[in-house]
Amino acid sequence: MEIKELKENKKQFLPLLLLADEQEDMIERYLDRGTMYVLDDDGVKCECVVTDEGKGVLEIKNIATEPAHQGKGYGKILIDFVAMEYKGKYSILQVGTGDSPLTIPFYEKCGFTYSHSIKNFFIDNYDHPIYEAGTQLVDMIILRRKL
């Protein structure tokens, strides 16, 4: 297993990026300014994009695991890698996600706790309703983990 930074051709992973953020123009807002990592375990299984949000905050803007390999720990391994890679350079690792029973428990298992929410984020920023686990996402939930 190898985790490597991808500096060029990030869009080659667009199908994987779209699993975590289903609107391409939203991905374009952070992809070029973000640092992208891919986890390769006999083929790319997981990716993540992190951005510097200022004031010591590093944000996971996108993290996705190939559907056939979800639930095998790849996402947690990648988050733990990012946390170790940036420890001492940032004080907080944060992620914004929908209020979903699929994602919140995953991030809590990775050491994140609730920080705040951004009202109507998914309604105001996406050109179509976003659903997860049968529920429309409305507010963005911000979770944080100390580095």
Could you tell me the radius of gyration in angstroms? 14 Å
% residues in beta strands = 35-45%
User: What is the CATH homologous superfamily assignment?
Assistant: Gcn5-related N-acetyltransferase (GNAT)
Note the main sheet.
7 strands, mixed
**Strand order across the largest sheet:** 1-2-3-4-5-9-6
Chain-averaged pLDDT? 96
What is the H/E string? Answer: EHHEEEHEHEHEEE
Number of continuous helical runs: 5
Q: State the CATH topology.
A: Aminopeptidase
Question: What is the number of strand segments?
Answer: 9
Net shape: globular
The assigned structural class equals alpha+beta
Based on the structure, what is the oligomeric state of the protein chains?
single chain
Low-confidence stretches: none
The CATH C-level class name: Alpha Beta
Q: What share of residues is helical? A: 10-25%
Count of distinct structural domains: 1
End-to-end separation: 24 Å
CATH architecture group name: 3-Layer(aba) Sandwich
Brief summary:
This protein has 147 residues and is α+β, with helices and mostly antiparallel strands. It has a single domain (2-146), classed as 3-Layer(aba) Sandwich (Aminopeptidase), CATH 3.40.630.30. It is 24% helix and 36% strand.
Keywords summarizing the entry:
single chain; 147 residues; alpha+beta; Aminopeptidase; 7-stranded mixed sheet; 5 helices; 9 strands; 24% helix; 36% strand
